[in-house]
Amino acid sequence: MILSPSMPAPGASFAEIDPPARLLMGPGPVNAHPRVLRAMSAQLLGQFDPEFTTYMNETMALYRQVFRTENRWTFLIDGTARAGIEAALVSLLEPGDPVVVLSAGRFGLLLREIAERCGAVVTTVEGEWGQVIAPDAVEAAVARVRPRVVAAVYGDTSTTMAQPMAEIGRICVRHGALLYVDATATLGGMDVPVDEWGADIVTAGLQKCLGGPSGSAPITISERAAARIDSRRHVEQGIASDIDRPASGRRIASNYFDLAMLMDYWSERRLNHHTEATTMLYGARECARLVVEEGLDARIRRHRITGQAMANGLEAMGLTLFGDQAHKMANVVGIEIPSGVDGERVRARMRTEFEIEIGTSFGALAGRIWRIGTMGYNCRHDTVLITLCALEAVLRAEGVSLPSGAAVDAARARFAEG
Question: How large is the average pLDDT for residues 341-369?
Fold first, then answer.
């Protein structure tokens, strides 16, 4: 057997995992809240244990508050945020269905790809990276295509822009389309008023503003979307009983991401689908408890102020912020890499000299911008000031002329305003 240089030799022994105490100030993941980590260390229970199903019900109730919704079907998908995205689209779309996708960044392109994999006929409304898409352009496409679904990303961390969703929701209502929203990077840090938007499915992840680890995807489903999903309901043969009606519409293409079966699993029937990711549910439940305990409005305000303090500090340092600042996400900021600066070397020095991680970017923006997040547990005064100090020191070491201390002064001034 030929081993690559990175492959350990057969029989090699390994030390206990002991990662560095790194401050994750990129666009996600962020450091998990200590209470979330403690919750995840609790003992396992069987998935049908009454204590555990009580935790499931409590998790549903908590996330209704986080999503600002009355939706009965508000629960968790076991998997990363992308698992929630795929579950939503594969359960709504079947081959030949028309869908309109808003795309102004990497994750809009992801929605298009997943819809194409479902066999849907995709019409993309394109926007420039660093801008948002005008509602008029969306309405023109929706009126022309008459889609079953409109899919959009609320906050796209690849560009740091937040698409205004209220008008998109009104467009969908006017034209009878279902609205799917990817709120991975915004839930728990920016307002996601699901019922007010008229959104039909919204999904998220724990690893951003909710302050948990990646691996669980909160989801909420309207009655209108639930009816569409139920029309495709097929009970797995090995668990079907006499009370289950014969199959109706076209079967959802994925077994694992079949929302009809998952809804049965989270319902009073507890119809077995998979073995629930117990530890992740504990963590997701604690993430939502932290949001509700702080108060959603207070938490959104904290993210807004902290994000503004970071942005003000970066500008005071003499750096240029990327994109349309009128539509910037509250919890992630893009910074144009100064001319002549090696962006990856700066990131490496931030990590090796200060144990701080900041983000790079993708696609058309690769090598052009850094991205710094202020999310969840890391959305604090001290993390902002430490990151600004470290970035200033590294840029000075790279030969960039900067006003000494101006970044921290500007951030502190914003915090003082309250």
Answer: 96
Task: Identify each DSSP E strand in 168-315 by its residue range.
Answer: 178-182, 201-203, 216-221
Inform me whether the pLDDT recorded for 1 exceeds 50.
no
Identify the residue with better confidence: 189 or 241: 189
Residue-number span of the structural domain to which 96 is assigned: 34-291
Nearest to 112 by CA among 12, 28, 50, 180: 180
Write the CB contacts of 48 (distance below 8 Å, at least 6 apart in sequence): 270
Question: What per-residue confidence (pLDDT) applies to 2?
Answer: 57
43: amino acid identity, one letter: Q
pLDDT tens string 26-44? 999 999 999 999 999 999 9
Number of alpha carbons in the 13 Å side-chain half-sphere of residue 410: 19
**Pairing, β 161-162 against β 178-182:** unpaired
58 backbone dihedrals φ, ψ, rounded to 5°: -65, -40
- What is the distance, to the nearest Å, from the Cα of residue 110 to the centroid of all Cα atoms in its chain? 13
Q: Answer with the one of 273, 291, 309 that is the final residue of a domain.
A: 291
Look up residue 131 and give its DSSP letter: B
Asked if residue 281 and residue 147 are part of one domain, the reply reads yes
Q: What average pLDDT is seen over the chain?
A: 95
With a cut of 90, say whether residue 252 has pLDDT above it: yes
Does 22 map to a domain? no
DSSP calls for 309-375: HHHHHHHHTTPPBPS-GGGB-SSEEEEEPPTT--HHHHHHHHHHHH-EE-B---GGGTTTEEEEE--
**How far apart, in whole angstroms, are the C-alpha atoms of residue 415 and residue 408?**
11
d(CA 400, CA 314): 14
| CATH code of the domain in which 124 resides | 3.40.640.10
Number of domains in the chain: 2
Q: What is the CATH number for 311?
A: 3.90.1150.10
Closest alpha carbon to 186 in 166, 209, 217: 209
Is residue 325 a part of any domain in this protein?
yes
**Within a domain: residue 25?**
no
**Predicted TM-score (pTM) of this structure:** 0.95
Confidence of residue 333 (pLDDT cuts 50, 70, 90): very high
- Burial of residue 30 (CB within 10 Å: 0-12, 13-18, 19+) is buried
- Quick one: 247 and 380 in the same domain? no
